[in-house]
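Newbie here. two chains, one complex. Structure please?
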Amino acid sequence: MAKDKKSLRPRAQTPKGFRDYFGAEVSDRAEMLRAIMQVYHRYGFDALESSAVETVEALGKFLPDVDRPNEGVFAWEDDDDGWVALRYDLTAPLARVYAQHRNDLPLPYRRYAMGPVWRNEKPGPGRFRQFYQCDADTVGAASVAADAEICAMLADCLETVGIPRGDYLIRVNNRKVLNGVLEVMGLKDDDQRAAVLRTIDKFDKVGEAGVRELLGKGRLDASGAYIDGVGLAPDQAEPVIAFLTSGRLEAADTLANLRDAIGESQVGDEGVSELEEIAALLAAQGYGPDRIIIDPSVVRGLGYYTGPVFEAELTFEILDDKGRKRQFGSVAGGGRYDDLVKRFTGQAVPATGVSIGVDRLLAALREKGRIGGQVAGPVVVTVMDRDRMGDYQQMVAELRQAGIRAEVYLGNPKNFGNQLKYADKRQSPVAVIEGGDEKANGVVQIKDLILGAKIAQDATLEEWKDRPSQYEVPRGDLVAKVREILSAHNLDTGAQG
Amino acid sequence: MAKDKKSLRPRAQTPKGFRDYFGAEVSDRAEMLRAIMQVYHRYGFDALESSAVETVEALGKFLPDVDRPNEGVFAWEDDDDGWVALRYDLTAPLARVYAQHRNDLPLPYRRYAMGPVWRNEKPGPGRFRQFYQCDADTVGAASVAADAEICAMLADCLETVGIPRGDYLIRVNNRKVLNGVLEVMGLKDDDQRAAVLRTIDKFDKVGEAGVRELLGKGRLDASGAYIDGVGLAPDQAEPVIAFLTSGRLEAADTLANLRDAIGESQVGDEGVSELEEIAALLAAQGYGPDRIIIDPSVVRGLGYYTGPVFEAELTFEILDDKGRKRQFGSVAGGGRYDDLVKRFTGQAVPATGVSIGVDRLLAALREKGRIGGQVAGPVVVTVMDRDRMGDYQQMVAELRQAGIRAEVYLGNPKNFGNQLKYADKRQSPVAVIEGGDEKANGVVQIKDLILGAKIAQDATLEEWKDRPSQYEVPRGDLVAKVREILSAHNLDTGAQG
């Protein structure tokens, strides 16, 4: 009977691929997003929070002739609206919002958006089906000044959240230059063009020699498998190699190399000119190659974007799972896309934007020790006499009014050891104790738990007995003494609220 | 042909009952939630962000024998987890999280949560299917000190976001007192108890006389319909009336009245004692009846909660749709509930908490003029010469580095009128102009758009021609002059970043 009942209990578990975030995981992210938001705001971008649910039609996912829409989104059928789905990014909703509200929005429209998105994908380690995005886009500005501005803003964001100059680099490329390269190669077959694009995408992994092989006859990969090549003659492949390897320290040299790579191509010329303009605009604002560079080896996203493409890379080294050094890598990317709104209105509207990888950037800040250091738990006021709860509540009220994070122990106070264990679990820096004797004498005991933990580790028995981490002070000095201890440990004393 | 294509275009619209939030709608809410979060944090509450998607099983919504789960939630069938749904509040997920992670969480566990929830209900005017909640709960504390603490915290929250003392009142009641009342009435029939509870819920609307009628023979309502009564004799109904009308200015008097109403009932006695304890604990912390009162007329939620119940009401008057004065009313409510975790673990875990109505509180702050006043748009640097975009970008960079919100016009600069129209739409306080002559003379024109708009309304033609709202200053004085104008209009000058 009891067993039957038990089997009816629901499992206490998130669905697969979802997770919960606790304490500093939530507040660190909120603080980081707030700092980014302030930079976006200063650049004239306005907040937009679109609904989490969109019609499948608006998202651009189309129904197959089966009962459910295709994989990739979480979708269901609504009585009023047919198939609807959770947004899978913040760009598709932007296109819908812009098309819906275009008569009321300024043109150009600069907007930022931050929030969760959902992907109906097989979850894996560190790969979740709900995660945060943090985007800024400019809709309706054809000028590459909009792209340059976003690159500068991205640099400001990284420095504001705590990535110092020198530890990041924003790399800018242009899809039109690549189109020019494909043009001079004389590739007219779409399949072959696609194959070349896929190969370029592998440049990061296989390097120049690898790309040469893959554009030609093919390549034996590390696993021993033979990868078929695109089948170009070495001469024909040359512009791709020239394009990928044209990066130099000086923007002028890189741009000259790119001019060579695109030959007589008009679209290629346009692309190089755009990069020149971006470099000039950034220089005018004081953003030099120590922050933003023209770099033709940026290939990620070239298939998706239609003009300038940019990527923010963190250049400091970390140790990977196997203890090997590697660069931290990409934390943000974006570029120009021009056809998103056209789906709705029939009119092409130029747009450009950036998306910051929230979890990646948080991991980087943790890596740099910017967040996730010592977490100050609350001061815990213990309960020695359950009939005097009012006295203890008065103490926490005083501490809180002084801006100090504090709480009274609300569990069963019978076992004092449990109260100290609780304070330990809360990472409390300070415990306050007021028994009957203290009350009678008008004093309180204040335990410095951080110092206490250090002493417990290192001290001799004599030192331990001296209890130098516990202080008896007049009741009226409670706040001052707690503040003194917090201050000694460089913790927030509430002095600035 | 063209027509066919057009009909294939997706509608640019949110699903019914969903909406988008723009600019200050987003940032005002974020600022309010941040202020509340800081109070929660100071009280020792930790952040929790649970996943938006839960298994239907964990949410406690059960499948009927048809294809889809019942109304109320947005649900769909997942390949891995069966039926899953968007959370409809923040309390059900808390129960699941607590059951799942109880070995790692401190006990008691104080947590706060803020975020959207979703309801699959018919949308109506001002009624949306996605909205924000902002909760704080303490799990695992049986003591009413936990309830008292949450009431004090709620008062702090309201004052922190900008509701001054005197403009709100937190009213506290206790379900156990009501249970005592039902006990002394000798009601053993569950249907009759339920009918009495429903009647009590109408006290706010129909008043004492109305409740008397409804507990007795029945009542003719305003529409002329006759509402059947519960059928109690006048004597039998008396304890309910005594309970509902026992509130007095002094807590001691209210509590004495309640003692009379509950007679010999043990559970009633427990309830009154709890209210006494809450009143004493709040008094010890300095929260008097100007902020928190014992008020037996709080009936909302009495059916759901198991112990203390509280509600925050804003007492200032507003005009309703028809121009009549009325009190603003409730913005937050909560209480003690003890069976939520038991569903998962079989063990009863005491819990108490509060939920702040985010949209209601925002509306109240707007009503009080705390938010939604003059919005400062960005300074707009106009483009007089498209070849000198670098110069203009340099200006905005200087302004931004000084902490001033600024942007360069990124649309087609050909028509200068469009640029000023854009600045108008952006609610820009200042426009900056640098044509060829200005460039040659090393000066810029700075237009005070706020003053300009005033002059355009009031000025004579002569005054208008004098253009006293436009200043020519040396290029080097750009930031200083803009700051001076912003300062004259009490706008953020970026001086504090």
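Moderator note: Confidence is low (pLDDT under 50) at residues 1-6, 62-69 of chain A. The domain at 379-488 of chain A is CATH 3.40.50.800 (Rossmann fold). Thread marked as resolved.
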